[in-house]
């Protein structure tokens, strides 16, 4: 998987927030994805816009649900992210997925500590 961030991964939180607003108006990421889909149509790639500042590029079928085929023995699976939701694709493969929406790195750490400190 390749993660592409037009503003750069090392931007500040303020820059992230500003870019998100700008992108909603000017469609920077959707325009980039559209051009890349056209240019690389022969490569069987999926382009997925997510979060505030980036989009992912990966082979078809290799999205976040790809790992689920190898996790049958687990009763719970946790996905973390700022734009996490129960998609139909995810729920058909794993109805026990727990989705935590986190708005910052610190909140993600708090959620992860909670998940791993809570007895089953």
From TrEMBL:
Its cofactor is Mg(2+). Its EC number is 5.4.2.8. Mg(2+) binds at residue 82. The keyword Metal-binding applies. PANTHER family: PHOSPHOMANNOMUTASE. Homodimer. This is Phosphomannomutase.
């Amino acid at each position: 998987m390749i993660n592409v961030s037009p503003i750069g991964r090392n931007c500040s939180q303020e820059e992230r927030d500003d870019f998100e607003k700008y992108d909603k108006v000017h469609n920077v990421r959707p325009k980039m994805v559209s051009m890349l889909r056209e240019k690389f149509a022969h490569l069987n790639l999926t382009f997925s816009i997510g979060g505030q500042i980036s989009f992912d590029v990966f082979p078809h079928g290799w999205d976040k649900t790809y790992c689920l085929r190898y996790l049958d023995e687990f009763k719970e699976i946790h996905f973390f992210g700022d734009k996490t939701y129960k998609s139909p694709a995810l729920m058909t493969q794993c109805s026990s997925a727990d989705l935590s929406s986190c708005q910052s790195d610190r909140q993600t750490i708090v959620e992860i500590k909670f998940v791993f400190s809570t007895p089953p």
